[in-house]
Specification:
234 residues; alpha/beta; Rossmann fold; DNA polymerase, domain 1; 2 domains; 6-stranded parallel beta sheet; 10 helices; globular
Length: 234
């Protein structure tokens, strides 16, 4: 029996929050505090609905839950307060997810270009990228640098443009529905690692199914070639 023939992606794009770094609990703290500022704490279900979204989306969820309207000036004040809070939390306790650093080293040694693609705005994205290691990434695309946030495909179309590849030649790691939807909408191949398998978007390859868990521990560059091939069939 012959072994399968795997193909290699032209580039790998990494979501940041919840994929490269375990920052979603920190965003959760700030999001709950935002909702309390507006008068009513979010339920866990509504908090989950904000994962991977933009600040505008999060503010809309919080305001609707509280039954209040927010004018542009107040929205800017809330934005600045929330991002200052998240920045402080990042400085205190942000770290790469287990297995991420050895995996990035393996991909770097293989010569596969990597970019960070995150809805997080540049001021905070740079803090997280520094916590992981800027040396791993050729470039990054932040949420305030494209016309539309995820789940729109803009970010992934821009990332593919920057590496000179077609979206279908690129592999994406994403944990949120918004992110998976964005990457698939751009035409990229996607490995999805949502916390709940029920949140896997159709068309994404389940990392749990492919690797046995959503952890990057023990995975390597050969796995990327295998997943890139399998993701075309997802």
């Amino acid at each position: 029996m012959t072994s399968p023939s795997w193909s290699s992606p032209r580039a790998v794009f990494w979501d940041m929050d919840g994929t490269l770094v375990d920052s979603e609990p920190l965003w959760g703290i700030a999001t709950y505090e935002l909702s309390e500022r507006l008068g009513r704490r979010l339920t866990p279900e509504l908090r989950a609905a904000t994962v991977g979204g933009s600040f505008d989306h999060t503010l809309r969820v919080c305001a609707e839950h509280a039954g209040v309207s927010v004018d542009p000036r107040r929205a800017r004040e809330l934005h600045d307060a929330m991002f200052a809070r998240v920045g402080a939390l990042f400085s205190e306790s942000l770290a790469p997810r287990p297995g991420v650093l050895p995996f990035l080293e393996a991909l770097r040694a293989r010569g596969i270009p990597m970019l960070v693609t995150t809805n997080t705005e540049r001021s905070l994205a740079d803090k997280a990228i520094a916590a992981v290691g800027e040396r791993f990434f050729r470039d990054s695309v932040a949420g305030d640098e494209v016309a539309r946030f995820k789940p729109a495909p803009d970010m992934y179309l821009e990332a593919a443009r920057r590496v000179g590849a077609a979206p279908g030649e690129c592999l994406v790691f994403e944990d949120s529905r918004a992110g998976m939807t964005a990457a698939l909408g751009a035409g990229c191949r996607v490995v999805g690692l949502p916390e709940e398998e029920s949140d896997l978007v159709e068309g994404a390859l389940s990392m749990r199914a492919a690797a046995g868990s959503r952890s990057f521990e023990g995975v390597g560059a050969d796995d990327v070639e295998r997943w890139f091939t399998l993701s075309a069939r997802a």
